[in-house]
Recover the amino acids of this structure.
């Protein structure tokens, strides 16, 4: 159909003539309401964005001399975060002369990793950065 006839037909129906495949020979066009088409496209993008899984990185801070009961409470918090599909950054902070207790801090982080091994996996092993040692846990 010639272009002018297609445009006239689209105008009769109060719609737009939209080129679907410009590289085809002859080019393929479609009569549609272009405004409604654009609206539906944005709605589809919003739905796709809504279904995307996002996660946050939560942080739990401990010290090398943190007591066992306090540690169990923090492990309970880690469990809640992991169940919500968030990653957890466990940070062991050394203040003042505690920097000499780096071995104790590493043992503490290993203990946390063992306690949470059934529902979390260690994504980043304990790493020393300045006065802090960090480890990242992710959901299984």
């Amino acid at each position: 159909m010639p272009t002018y006839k297609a445009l006239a037909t689209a105008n009769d129906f109060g719609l737009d003539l939209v080129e679907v495949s410009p590289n085809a020979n002859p080019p393929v066009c479609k009569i549609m309401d272009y405004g409604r088409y654009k609206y539906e496209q944005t709605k589809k993008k919003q739905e796709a964005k809504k279904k995307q899984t996002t996660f946050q990185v939560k942080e739990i801070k401990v010290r090398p001399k943190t007591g066992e009961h306090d540690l169990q409470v923090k492990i309970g918090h880690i469990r809640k975060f992991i169940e919500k599909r968030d990653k957890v950054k466990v940070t062991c902070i050394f203040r003042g002369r505690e920097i000499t207790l780096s071995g104790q801090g590493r043992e503490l982080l290993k203990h946390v990793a063992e306690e949470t091994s059934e529902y979390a996996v260690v994504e980043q092993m304990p790493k020393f950065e300045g006065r802090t040692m960090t480890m990242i846990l992710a959901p299984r």
